[in-house]
Amino acid sequence: MLGFGFRRYRLLGKNEDKTPEDSSTQEEEAYKEVTYSSQLSDVLKVNMALKTLQVIGQILRNSPGSMRGNVKFDITKESYGLGLRVLRVVLALAETNMELLREYFSRFIGE
């Protein structure tokens, strides 16, 4: 509960100096729907993968008896593979562009 309150405080504090019109436009822009394509930047793909892993983790954690074991195992195995692919991309980005990676993780941690 402490984390939620702090995060909410931080998010509210982040938009204090902006007018309501500015913040609503930025929120709409930040949460617009993006469909996956091979033309997306690697950073955006990593972000999509991490969000997907978070959602899948919540689903697996919150459905202990409603899903059969083999289904959970298959989902977990594919999630693990996705995590490894994300790690490979992140390490490749680190080799080529450290500053972009720092910027991405600072934004990701800020969310």
Give a brief description.
It contains 5 helices and no strands. The protein has 111 residues and is mainly alpha-helical.
What are the SSEs and their pairings?
Layout: H1 2-14, H2 20-30, H3 42-61, H4 69-96, H5 98-110
Helix pairs in contact: 3-4, 4-5
Describe the structure.
There is one protein chain. The protein is mainly alpha-helical. The protein folds into 2 domains: 1-32, no CATH class; 34-110, no CATH class. It contains 5 helices and no strands. The longest helix is centred in the last third of the chain and has 28 residues, at 69-96. It is elongated. Residues 1-20 have low confidence and may be disordered.
Provide the descriptors you would attach to this structure in a database record.
2 domains, mainly alpha, disordered N terminus
**Mean of pLDDT:** 75
The helix-strand sequence is HHHHH
**First-last Cα distance:** 16 Å
Portion of residues within helices: over 70%
- Share in β-strands: under 5%
Q: Based on CA inertia axes, which overall geometry fits? A: elongated
Helical run tally: 5
Which secondary-structure class do the elements indicate? mainly alpha
Count structural domains: 2
